[in-house]
Amino acid sequence: MGCCNRRCGLIAGAVFGAVVAILGGVLIPLGNSVIRGTVEKEAVIEPGTTAYDNWVAAGASVYRQFWFFDVQNAQEVLENGTTPVVVERGPYTYKTRYLPKENITFNSNQTVSFLLPVGAIFEPSMSVGPEEDKVTSLNLAVAAAYSLVPKVLHSVLENLIKTSNSSLFQYRTVNELLWGYTDPMLKGKLGLFFPYNGTYDGMFNVYTGKEDISKVGIIDRWRGERSLRFWDDKYCDMINGTDASSFPPFVDKKTPLYFFSSDICRSVSASFDGSMDLKGIEVYRFTLQADTMASPTVNPANKCFCRDQKTTKNCTLAGVLDISSCQDGRPIFISLPHFLHGSPSLRDDVKGLSPSEEHHATFLDVEPTTGFTLRFAKRIQVNMMYGPSKVITVLKKVKDYTIFPLVWMNETASLDDATADMIKEELVSRIEMLAIVWKALLGSGVAIFVLCSISYCMVGSDQSKLV
To answer: What is the dihedral of CA 310, 311, 317, 321, to 10 degrees?
Structure first.
């Protein structure tokens, strides 16, 4: 009778262990379903959700750090055609994107439209010097006029340069070069980012995700259009993805992230580079794909971004993007800092450049469950082009077309401690607790089942020996 009771107890124990293990197994999809449902609800862009509260406000502090390329041998370049030598100076840091979105309007097609006001406030504590620091840089007016004025009118341009006492290079303050100064030759205001303060980016229309969470944040229209009008090509004019501040939740590391940047007038994609820890939160780091700025000979999809056969060496030049078509004709070339991933000839034409993946690559650190970008560094270099002329005195010694670096910018932000704590409390801790519970149930249930099953077999074996 004792053996019978013991065997019954072991059977009951095995059954109990199996039930506990099954409960642990069931808890995995059940818990994941609860978390997924909560995230999908809170990720929708509508009043009352976590996503909306973060989306509508200015959010984490965004900074733009600028490094200028200070020309060291301007006179030798003019007189002898010597290769320019530059030294990097910076950072000069400004707080930007500190203003909340304006004109927020919810539309009937499950999109929300808004304007993004832009401004810049100088941050002396994060800068190497005051805005009044001066650097020797390319003359914006001369370089722009050279590109825009036909050769048959170079004599007129030569006269303007001489009468205004202008040259190929100029010595100006950081503030002037960035935000504007009155140019003596053109008699108007010029600046790398002029006008900026008091202006807007947009209008944007983005999907709210209310009916389809996989579309949340994805741009439907920019400036009222579903595609761009800069590149005269259906592929290059596509507006793909979000604005990179967030992505649809449940990010798959195998799938590239697409986003549109008005700074470079095109959409780009980023691929998974690795997992990282950010203040106790696991994030996926995505970086620009290696062929984003490749020449069409390497990446044929970039053919439509090649605008000028002459300045791009018959579209074989890698690493630069001519965005003049979206800059009101201003001959601006965009690249990664120090011509990272660019053709060697770009660095041969200007000495003093040292590209580095660590310091010059663009990346996004995305929390995979929510799709929120918790840290990013968008790094862009602004360049202009000049070339030889038989008429313009300051260009007579120039041997070939030169894409000259003016400044590179790191637009960056990272979540603060309070936001990190909120994410860990509301999301990470719940996921971790769920994992602990199901592992404990599954582990203990399996252990009980195995121990009871083994003991049952041993009791059965002992009983048969007695018989």
So the answer is: -130
CA nearest neighbour of 404 among 329, 348, 330, 328: 348
The full DSSP string for 196-238 is -TTEEEEEEEEE--SS-GGGTT-EEEETTBSB-SSSSSTTTTB
Contact 241, 218 (CB under 8 A): yes
User: What is the SS3 assignment for 382?
Assistant: strand
Residue that has been written with the tokens 């002037």 in this structure: 176
Cα 189 to chain centroid, rounded = 30
**CB-side neighbour CA atoms (13 Å) of 43:** 31
Amino acid at 373: T
- Per the CB < 8 A criterion, the answer to whether 134 and 171 are in contact is yes
Q: What are phi and psi of 249, to 5 degrees?
A: -65, 165
Tell me whether residue 28 is exposed, middle or buried, using C-beta atoms within 10 angstroms of its C-beta: 0 to 12, 13 to 18, 19 or more.
Answer: middle
Quick: pLDDT tens for 241-292: 999 999 999 999 999 999 999 999 999 999 999 999 999 889 999 999 878 9
Residue ranges in the chain whose pLDDT is less than 50 = 1-2, 10, 13-21, 23-24, 26-27, 30-31, 428-429, 433-438, 441-442, 445-446, 449, 456, 464-467
Residue 194 burial (CB < 10 Å; 0-12/13-18/19+)?
middle
pLDDT for residue 12: 52
Rounded-to-integer distance, Cα 336 and Cα 211, Å: 38
Assess whether the previous peptide bond of 91 is cis (omega < 30° from 0).
Answer: yes
Q: Which of 326, 325, 338 is nearest to 403 (CA)?
A: 338
Q: What is the pTM of this model?
A: 0.85
Cα 434–chain centre separation: 33
At 202 the pLDDT is 82
Query: Do residues 103 and 115 lie in contact, with contact meaning Cβ atoms separated by under 8 Å?
Result: yes
Predicted pLDDT at 61? 85
- For 421, residues 6+ apart whose C-beta sits below 8 A from its C-beta are none
